[in-house]
Amino acid sequence: MTKRRRQAFYLPAVILLLAATWLIYANGLHGGFLFDDFANLPALGASGPVDNSPAFWRYITSGTADPLGRPLAMLSFLFDAHDWPADPLPFKRSNLFIHLFNGILLSLLLRLLGRSMAKTQKSDIGALAIRVDLAAVLGAGFWLMHPLLVSTTLYIVQREAMLSSTFILLGLLAWMRGRHAMHRGHTVNGLCWLTLGLVGCTVLSLLSKANGILLPVLAIVIDGTVMATSNSPAVPGIHKRIYRSAMLLLGWLPLTLVAGYLLYQGWYGLTHGISSVRPWTAGQRLLTEPRVLMDYLHLLWLPHPFTPGLFNDQIHASTSLWSPAATLPSLLAVTGLILGAWVCRRRYPAWALAILFFFAGQSLESSSVPLELYFEHRNYLPAMLMFWPLALWLCGLGLTPTSYKAESYPLLQATPYYRKWTESRKPIAIWRIAKPLLASALLLGLGLMTYALASLWGNAREQTQLWAALNPESPRAQADAAEAEINTGHPALAVARLQRALVRAPDQAQLAMNLFDAQCQLGQVEPAFLITFGEALRTTRDTGPLLVNWFTREMDQVGRAACSELTFKTLGMFLDAAAANRKLNEVYGRRQDISYLRGHLALIQGDPDTALLDFNRALDEDPQISMALEQAALLGSSGFPRQGLAHLDHYERVRRQAVVPGFGMSRLHAWVLQRQHYWPGELARLRDTLTKDTVPQVNAVHESCESNKKNCSN
After folding, report:
1. Residues forming a β-bridge with 323
2. What are the sequence ranges of the domains in the chain?
3. Which residues of 298-310 are buried (b: 16+ CB within 10 A; e: fewer)?
4. CB under 8 Å to 132, separation ≥6 — which residues?
5. Which long-range contacts (CB under 8 A, 24 or more apart) does 420-429 make?
6. What does the pLDDT read at residue 705?
7. SS3 state at 564
8. Cβ contacts of residue 663 below 8 Å, gap of 6+?
9. Does domain 468-655 have CATH number 1.25.40?
10. If you count Cβ atoms within 10 Å of the first and of the last residue's Cβ in the chain, which end, N or C, has fewer?
11. What is the rounded CA–CA span in Å between residue 347 and residue 585?
């Protein structure tokens, strides 16, 4: 088949695949924002609309998720909105476009890999080209339509993982072109492509998410499996030596750094412990991750129409090799898969590549770094090559290297079993019909499951209810479902759900907070539950921003809520319980949150002097100017500008004790704000406003004194 005819097949097949994927995902585009979206996307309007150059630089450097801040991912959000709140539809649509683009890049990568392997066959490459292209499209299709990836594609904030994967794919394509050029003697051209792929694209991927550092590692995996079996033309040894030297610098050096970092994280966690935010130790995490990886593989190869989604707090850490019972078998299975793939990498290069690529792609987030134990989106990149060997088989391509074929072993050919073995390997006529039907059935099945799951993502209420049913042991899932029931006017359902969940997890403050709201909406909070709520606050682990958000909302509802139990005294009692929580107070920023809430509570009750003392204590924890301005503005807007000025004076006294941003985007963001004179300008404006508001108060005091003929000298 000519090159033009092959392209005439390949391009329509890719376009058809993309169109089908778009239709499958279309219903999911109408969903809303979720969880971490609210923690990241409000930066679009944190200092006003991003509609000018200073605002752009403040926004683009404000990321804190990684040391590098993920600025490219943040930049991509500007294509969807320039302020907050915003409509979620453009964000989800952009995510789907990126997913489709990644599918195109993946099919190109599989096409190149397949052609490299096909060169090991005795038959002409042209005779295999159509099957190689079909396998590439089919392998990309299995990945594009897999239901496990819905929670990445339709979860807006996971664009960071998707963009990082985009640059990794581009980097691998550039690296393969450079490798191809160098093995044909074009050293300068090859080095340029190698550098572009393994350096340039790694940097771009890192600026989207830290997983980008794995690009050189993945290139080495490909180089040691599929590409190691391809026959290269005879070229002078110097070109091969230059290539090996370049890979040592651009590939093996980053791999060594990544391995060293992971080993250091493991050693530090085992010897010094990890944050009290986590309910498990570093050793328990290392024992648990093989179970998690095997569960990922289970969901990839035996996909479900509905997955656990975004909830992972029901995953219990392994406490020993035998607890739970799956720990040791999972550890042995993961070890066996990795060692087996390495040993058989030349005999079965496609399968070895799929397995090693998966585990290499999981190495950063599923090993010693103390992240949460489980997330579905961690499979987005590692699963990219997972189904390619299946696609090769369905397209009738074994693609075993020539050096490993039976014809290469005369002694084997002389055995009486050889003829029978070769006859058994001849294509059976039924497979010529069965394989296309099986491939179509697999694509159809994946498409239907993904369609059902994407449609669920477009219906927020049904989504929360199903996730709660699929994750009965997850406090987050139950709290989320209960909140939806409260918001839709079904507090009795929420009460029943939360009472069951709180019995299983009495230290989950989120459950207690939602149960308080549900009972309050019904008109009465059970007196015994107030004690339970206080105990939950005394024993809970880190609540994140939930603590400030819930207490602030409840303070505004005092006197307006349907239940009489919501009082300032009750909220003060709850704050005392949180302040007595040792684990909570060990988390950076929580003591500051509690002092801030105490001050806010005093301010609402009309006690500005006590509020000032509490706000000062909050500022002493970490005297950042943003905190000082927020608290001073709150004092001023509540009618106490004099205390607001006093708080700013306190900031001037303690400002030198502020924590200096470390290396990375935080320091660059501080530099940008300094160059723009942003904080001095904000501070001057607030001082001026508070001063102007203080003058009428002073005049009013003097007028009152004069009218009562009192001594007004003070």
Report:
1. 320
2. 3-415, 468-655
3. ebbeebeebbbbb
4. 111, 114, 115, 118, 395, 397
5. 427/396
6. 56
7. coil
8. 67
9. yes
10. C
11. 56
